[in-house]
Write a structure and sequence with these properties.
Blueprint (H helix, E strand, L loop, with lengths): L9 H24 L3 E3 L5 E3 H17 L5 E3 H5 L9 E9 L1 H5 L6 E8 L2 E9 L4 E7 L2 E6 L12 E2 L11 E5 L5 H9 L4 E5 L3 H7 L5 E4 L3 E2 H13 L3 E4 L17 E2 L2 E4 L5
Parallel strand pairs: 3-4, 10-11
Antiparallel strand pairs: 1-2, 4-5, 5-6, 6-7, 7-8, 8-9, 12-16, 13-15, 14-16
Helix pairs in contact: 1-2, 6-7
Length: 272
């Protein structure tokens, strides 16, 4: 198999990981002090942890990739949306804010790089558990365990690979906070009874590490919610399609709400 060269070199990757771990430390410190929650215009929660983590990530990305525009959740919600071309970053500094507020562990720091509508690089990091996932190219993804309070100089990487499914025992992963009737009906129609609940972009990573086969999502998500996890899943051999079977692409800016995702089906090795 041909190995594609990553658009992010080793120095740049290390700089981004350093920023992600720094953001993780800030997020955990704020939660330790006590979380004060605000409500955004769309009704979703936001905390000072979201805001401070985003500042850290944007600074690091600008330093390493000064020519590439960045669409970041909190900036975008404030109306700061730069013009994008074929290549741009999508950043969610704290995905799974409800998990964060409720003292869960499935909240993540996310950086995704898009080229020609597809994720080509992604970092997903869960500060509370130390789970780190990186999709470096469409053919390579890895995981590691890193405590952001004691981030090591070197990281022991473990290659990620989706599982070959047992067609008689398909395993799904679904949202812990946003599972809806449409998801339940989709699972029931395919006789999928084994369902793991998870929060944030970790659901893509559950597929990437082979612990589930499919993740159906019909409720709304934003492109910064999914880009990094999508990149990790692609690197591990999985895929994401729209519920209509069409390619799941990024960079939708002309629709009524820019960067809003349609529903999708994310798969490991499973194919319907």
């Amino acid at each position: 198999m041909k190995t594609e060269e990553s658009l992010v070199n080793t120095h740049q990757l290390n700089a981004l990981l350093t920023a992600v771990f720094k953001a993780g430390r800030v997020i955990l410190a704020i939660r330790e002090r006590g979380v004060k929650t605000l409500t955004k215009n769309d009704g979703s929660p936001v905390t000072i942890a979201d805001q401070q983590a985003e500042v850290i990530l944007l600074h690091a990305i600008h330093q390493q990739f000064p020519q590439i525009p960045i669409i970041a959740e909190e900036a975008a919600e404030a109306g700061k949306i730069p013009a994008i071309a074929d290549r741009f970053f999508l950043v969610d500094p704290l995905d799974g804010t409800k998990e964060f507020i409720q003292s869960g562990t499935d909240f993540t720091v996310n950086i995704g790089l898009i080229e020609h509508g597809m994720p080509v690089f992604g970092i997903v990091y869960a500060p509370a558990s130390g789970q780190l996932y990186v999709g470096e190219t469409p053919n390579r993804a890895w995981q590691a365990h890193v405590d952001c309070l004691f981030a090591p100089d070197t990281i022991a990487q473990q290659t990620l690979q989706v599982a070959q499914p047992d067609q008689q025992n398909i395993r799904a992963v679904a949202s812990r906070s946003h599972r809806d009737e449409q998801t339940n009906n989709w699972l029931q129609a395919r006789n999928i009874a084994q369902v793991v609940a998870a929060g944030s972009s970790i659901k893509f990573c559950v597929l990437a590490r082979g612990d589930a086969d499919v993740y159906p999502r019909f409720g709304p998500t934003m492109q910064w919610d999914t880009a990094a996890g999508h990149a990790v899943l692609l690197g591990a051999g999985g895929r994401v399609m729209g519920v209509d079977g069409q390619p799941f692409l990024y960079g939708k800016t002309t629709q009524e709400r820019p960067f809003l995702n349609p529903g999708f089906i994310a798969c490991g090795g499973w194919r319907e």
